Amino acid sequence: MTTDDDARKLVILVEDEPDHVELVRRAFAGDGRFGLAVASSLRSLDDLVTRVRPALVIADLVLPDGRGLDLLLRKELLADCPIVLITSQGDESVAVEAMKRGALDYVVKSAETLENMPHVAARALREWNHIVEREQAERERNRLEAQVLHAQKLESLGVLAGGIAHDFNNLLMAVLGHAELALGEVPAESPATRSIEKIRKASLQAADLCAQLLTYSGKGRLELKPFGLSELVRDVSRLLEVSISKSVVMKYDLADDLPPIEGDANQIQQVAMNLITNASEAIAGDDGVITVSTGTTEMTGESPPRAFGFGVPRTGTYVWFQVADNGSGMDEETKAKIFDPFFTTKLTGRGLGLAAVMGIARGHDGVVNVESERGRGTTVRVCFPASLQPVQPPGPEAEIDESWVGSGLILVVDDDDFARDAASRLLEERGFSTVEATNGREAVAIFREHSDRVAGVLLDMTMPRMGGERTVRELRRLRADVRIVLTSGHSEQEVLRRFGTDEPDGFLAKPYGKRELARAFRPLLAAEAATK
To answer: Where are the alpha helices (DSSP H) in 108-244?
Structure first.
């Protein structure tokens, strides 16, 4: 029986001349690097390679049942095996044809070359190993380039999605704000009230879509706090069991002693819901099984996971959530697109789900691993960094007094005319007077003139001719105790990370209405009044 180690060193000589075979046998007999097997024809070679796996084939050009060149066309028989042709004909055209067809070498037969055949074999295998190494390096380079291009494509799409969401939130600010204003101006019994309320609700749904786009871009609104991942997954699974197919069996392997993770529980809940729903929809028939599990793993910079992430995960303990199904699985072409926004294999108009999963993972410094094969199901694992902070019990939500009205002058700064007008009118409904500026430079000039009267500033973050960050510094330089509420179509975390110690006093995400304005300004102005 031939072992794998022997097979790697086995040389098969295809030669029908007994004298030549004997010379080669003697040469190999004194060389311990190779074993030698002999076939006298192409047919006998076929029989031989069904029993042993050669490292090299040395074939005579002219054989009883064909030509050695014919071996170069039989890739299914001699896959990944180099072939050296030998012949007594020193015909250059034959040598060129042999090399074009894929021969590794072409040797003119003589007594000297036959006696040196072990050296020919050693040289051929060295060259073959170099070729294999170059091809492997090229494949790895191509794989890494494809991975980088895929990451860059997703990153570019994320930037585009974030920019669209930001601009669209400005428009929604105007629609939602004016709809709320109109509801306050139209009698409740008016037929227009119903239409205005539908406009308001549609605006809120559009705001949710913008939130998903920001989530995909990794810039979604995060309410960070520590919580247990297994507990969250249990709650989500109970909710989903009533909506997934009754033919699907749910199995759970949820660890009880996991360290908490720090993140936005609502967004992590969305990840769990998306993955379990996708797994259910990928299963056809009555033998579907979805396995939901959690656990921990250690990641190091030296051994990062093969992930659809951006960059290498930081070193440390990660808590993971995994959904595995025995459904239809995916081919490589489909798997390469699953995190593209709006790519879907389902109904038209769906497909932001896995893009949002990627965005949420990125926003939480996590990574996503995907393993899938056509007909063998899919396994998706999402890993989040473990937190050292203990889980905190939920506190009561602050109530807003709808009858509360403020007083004083509010400086409203926004380069978007619709958003600025809506904000000013909403503030005026709350009892404030307003003065408007279209950019930071204009705001500083107005504030310099009215600084003793300004009770607070509602300041947009992204503006031409001096943005929000610099405007905050300039306003605080003029009056250190001025109350500033920053507003933006981007998330609070994305905006505030640009500030150092000189942060604004509050943040208001667009689009917002009267309740959100009251929640932002009331505690700030009450605290200011208490200090006077």
So the answer is: 111-115, 117-185, 191-216, 229-241
Q: Encode burial over 499-532: b for 16+ CB neighbours within 10 A, e otherwise.
A: eeeeebbbbbbbbbbbebbbebbbebbeebeeee
Determine the pLDDT at residue 291. 92
From CA 339, how far away is CA 468, in angstroms rounded? 33
User: pTM for the complete prediction?
Assistant: 0.49
- Give the integer Cα–Cα distance in Å for 50 and 378: 36
Secondary structure of residue 492 in the 3-state scheme? helix
By the 10 Å C-beta count (0-12 exposed, 13-18 middle, 19+ buried), 189 is classed as: exposed
Residue 263's contacts (CB-CB under 8 Å, 6 or more residues apart) are 222, 224, 225, 227, 364, 384
Residue 387 in contact with residue 259, Cβ under 8 Å? yes
Q: Which residue has the tokens 């046998």?
A: 25
Q: How many CB atoms lie within 10 A of CB 405?
A: 11
Sequence-distant (6+) residues with CB within 8 A of 497 are: none
Asked if residues 439 and 448 have their Cβ atoms less than 8 Å apart, the reply is no
pLDDT tens-digit series, residues 499-520: 767 788 888 888 888 888 888 8
What is the per-residue pLDDT across 155-210, written as a single tens digit (0 to 9) for each? 666 666 666 777 778 788 888 888 888 887 888 888 888 888 888 888 877 777 67
